[in-house]
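Notes, p. 3: input format for complexes.
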Amino acid sequence: MTILLKVTGLTKQFAEKVVVDDIDFTLKENTSTALIGPNGAGKTTTLSMLTGLLKPTSGSVKMQNGEVRDNIGFLPQYPQFHPWLSAIEFTEMAAKLNGVPAKSAKKDAQKTLEFVGLGNDLNKKIATFSGGMKQRLGISQAIVHKPKLLLLDEPVSALDPVGRREVLDLLKGLQQETTILYSTHILNDAEEMTDQLLFLRDGKLVEQGTLREVRQRFDELHYVVEFSSEEEAKHFTDQYEPKGKVKGCFVYIAIIDEGPSMQQLLKYLSDTPYKIRKVERQTASLEEIFMKVAKRI
Ligand SMILES: Nc1ncnc2c1ncn2[C@@H]1O[C@H](COP(=O)(O)OP(=O)(O)OP(=O)(O)O)[C@@H](O)[C@H]1O
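Output follows (297 residues plus adenosine-5'-triphosphate):
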């Protein structure tokens, strides 16, 4: 896959404080990358340096075949809209500002608004828009000029679950045509839409890779067996090796080097007199992994 953007040694220092500390990553074409990390980790500062809004203290941001500036669309965390403009006027203005020729700006704005689901609201004033509609308008101003790279700062965090779903589906559709880098606090979303994860903590990139790779490094895989009573759960644990941990009616058995296999466990259980309610192989959610990365020294 072709590399679209290469970030090397990117650093930002405000007075004495280094808030982005020597980070390296690449973005491949037509992939989506989630930038995650606790409050103050440096996500917005990183995105601001990529957009050119902030000058890096050191390091470089290089785009394959072109200038970053000419090839990005950006949705800030708190986009500013002119409430007295209509959706089409605002998007047309954004198109012109981003270099779309005046004669096609209106048509492109209309097509983009239709794409983001605002086709019936072209002439409505932004002042009347809901949060979800504004976010879709924000996305339309970021993509109207068909940028190669779309940068989004917390695109769904301010939305309710319905709005989040709509915007997320919209972004998934966009992924076919552009490369996306977005920051988020909502880890379920990152879990759903990401080819690459970048974990920032105290300005440092402490983890990166695909969801699968990060999972493999952090996940403590285990089986959960639900018994019909705590007594049975304890009795089972006394007999069975490797020893599980008992919590009420549940026993948690760690999977180490792929052992024991589910078949071995089920076979063992079927030869016992216990009433088993459920046997499951569990993986940690991204949220749990995030907590581990965030707390790791
Ligand atoms: N202009 C500035 N001058 C001084 N310090 C700044 C400036 N902008 C940001 N910072 C500091 O840099 C650190 C990183 O901030 P940044 O907004 O990039 O974090 P973030 O990961 O986006 O956080 P959040 O999730 O809360 O939005 C914070 O400690 C912040 O106070």
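The two ends are 34 Å apart (CA to CA).
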